[in-house]
Amino acid sequence: VQLVESGGGLVQPGGSLGLSCVASGFTFSSYDMSWYRQAPGKGRELVARIADRSGWMQYADSVKGRFTISRDNAKNTVYLQMNSLKPEDTAVYYCNVAYMMRDYWGQGTQVTVSS
Question: What pLDDT, in 10s, does the model give residues 32-89?
């Protein structure tokens, strides 16, 4: 299993960023996919999750209405569109899949929201 994130960077408060995660090594369309984040000095927290085929989505309360998770099963890719970014969104963002009773993580991509 391999997960490769991209799209992080530095953005001003109120700005937008889009993250992508390309997956390989498993049947992507059969598994829920998630984005987590970890801010300095804090634990890793779930940001958003999307079901394998039904389109069901779950969001952390702190990002509802601002972030959108989506997936393209033909491209083995999950996305996270982040709008109205706040300084408290600053973190390393990780793509995740629970496969064969084990969590797999990407290398992470840094998102920094600062003026």
Answer: 999 999 999 999 999 999 998 877 999 999 999 999 999 999 999 999 999 999 999 9
Q: How far is C-alpha 4 from the chain's CA centre?
A: 11
The pair of structure tokens assigned to 85 is 């970014």
User: Is the Cβ–Cβ distance between 109 and 93 less than 8 Å?
Assistant: yes
Give the residues across from 104 on adjacent strands.
97
**Maximum pairwise Cα distance, the chain:** 42
Structure tokens at 108: 């992470």
Helix (H, G, I), strand (E, B) or coil at 101: coil
Q: How many whole angstroms separate alpha carbon 83 and alpha carbon 100? A: 33
Instruction: Report the pLDDT value the prediction gives residue 49, as an integer from 0 to 100.
Output: 98
